[in-house]
Amino acid sequence: MKKAIIAALMTVLIGWFFADWLYQLPEAGVIIAIAVMGGCIIYFNEQKK
Questions:
Q1: Is the torsion defined by CA of 39, 40, 45, 49 positive or negative?
Q2: What is the pLDDT of residues 10-39, one digit of tens each?
């Protein structure tokens, strides 16, 4: 559960940061946040092995 909370918070913060930083392309923040969450899922699944 702790890993899920960390991944969710990290995704929200990164999405918010990049949406604010790339103010001309606010959709980029969403795309980057989804990519980070996918990376977290893959990383945490690989650690189980």
A1: positive
A2: 888 887 887 777 777 767 777 878 888 888
